[in-house]
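Researcher: Good morning. I'm working through a list of sequences from a screen, and I'd like to move beyond sequence-only analysis. For each chain I'm collecting a predicted structure so we can compare shapes side by side. This is the next one on the list. No need for commentary yet; just the structure.
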Amino acid sequence: MATLQRIRNHGVFLLVIVGLAMLAFILGDVLNSSSSYFNKNREYIGEIEGQKIHYTEYENAVEQLTEVYKIESGRSDFDEDMHAQIRNQVWQMMVAKYTLQNQASKIGMDVTDDELYELCAGANPHQLITSRRMFTGMDGKFDRNYLLNFLTTIEMEPENAEQQANIKQAKDYWMYWENAVRLTAEQEKYVSLIQNLITANNLDAKYAAGARQAKVSVDYAIKPYYTVADSLVKVSTSDIRKIYDERKPLYKQTPNRDIAYIAFPIVPSDDDFAMAEKAMQDIQEEFRTTDEVALVVNSNSDVMYDGRNYSEAAVPEAYKEFAFGKGAKKNDFMALNYDETTRTFRMARLIDCGYSTPDSVQLKGIATKEGEQDQEFGWFAETDLQKNIAEPAFAGKVGSRFTVTLGMEDRTFEITGLTKATPKVKLAIIEREVTPSSKTFAAIYNQANQFVVSNQNEEAFRAAAEEAQMEVLTANGLQKMANKVADLKSSRAIVRWAFKAKDGQVSDVFECGDKYIVAVLTACHDDEYRPFEDVQAALRYEAVNRKKAEYISKQIADAKTLAEVAEAMGTEVRHIDELTEDAYRFGTEGLEPAAIGTAFATAAGELSKPVKGNQGVIVLVPGDVQRAEAEADYAAEIAQLNARTSYSLPYQLINNLEEHAEIVDNRSVFQ
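Model: Good morning. Structure tokens for this chain:
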């Protein structure tokens, strides 16, 4: 009974506890059941005109374009800048694709499958196809047979894993260009449609012809702004702000960040030099005497041994005297030495000498399929060719042929020329650059980390850097998708940090190639427009010139003639014989559109009002305007105006679509 009474006395309290427990249970269930929804949202890298872009779609497109670049360039050693370029190109193509599709769907525009086939594999393929070297014949021109053979090849059933990988790569290559042709064709259709709606008319033609044919002679005087001392005018903050308000649309910005940073170079320690030298000393005798030269070199050297033949012109400068000096003989040995410039220990052994081979070979590709023609490839040095081609090419004679396997097919070459044989050597080189050890990395990292721990705000950061005589560098206007900071390698992580950090926050330590970096966020710019304070200094020059224009105008206010104006200005009267209404320049004074307009708006023989020009104040007296009496050829004028528009309109149309599209870019979360 006592227990029941205690429960009754605390009934309200217990109800609250039970209620909170139930609420926690319900919320937990809701959040757990919704986690898949939130996770799913995090799988989208962006949204373009309502079309969500899944991360896998984006990454597959990046991988596809990377393969295309590999095939087109013949290389695969892309640096971080190239990878960033590929990723940005993929995003831009997606933006172009989905913004255009959004417009195309509204007007029922499309590229049909039949149209696409004709553009890709028809009688007259699109330039994007015909310009691919993959489909170039022996004569260096597009060969449709090569294209059709390629399309047949990618539909083959692979016989092994290597062939399967090659066919997949070829299919990805083709799909990229097929999609590129479709997108380009859609753009061309859309632009053509709009171009037919935007055309010059007779009024445009009349004005253009009149402006080009109207001429006037002008006498004028000019006083440049630089001739007026800055001390003679006063510029207030409100004067500068007035210009800022006039130009504000020009200062539209995307969110960006300003940072300052210091670098801790990761360089070898004295112990690292000592260890590298000892390692080279330990293998010196083995290198000098071994019969397994390739094994010893390739296990210990930064320079691999491939048995190549060096001419005196091709051998590295550091070994030229050793390899081709007087008395050089087989198995001579260059003892261990150190190059301070490259921070490298090195030694060398002369494997062979006293023989001669050609420096270059001329090759011709021999046609092996019906419809093909032989192809002249030209001259090659030994180092220009891959090893399986170079060996038979330089070992053969003029007129001999050899066959090698390249990719998925065998290719036959004929040697059509060889240069005169010159002395060669085979040289084995062991070079080892001294690099920081893991112990050195740790010591420098600890130094950088201690700087972070001891300096947790911008003021302390700058004071400590100054005390340590470390240079503080800046990177302003960092964009959210910037691939790196300045020229720092692998510094994308700093950009990501900058957009998460708070103003004045000091970063952790970042490893950027051969440096550790510590940064501080100095400014966050998230407003729609650049703030007045950021552009105030740049606008001050123009505000000063405006004040100088007012000053000069007051000086000449009482002048009644151009001669009096020139005298008050301390200058002389100048003359322009023929000034046309559509001119870009005002005589020799440069771009002064206000002066040109004034010359045609002022009555002949009258003194104009002072013109506030770009370079100075101009006062002028025009003569009679001469206009052509002949009627303009409106059709020719319209054609000329339309031709001029056609150059810029395609870019303007596509750019306008993208500027006004609803785009959400979340790539920074994933990259």
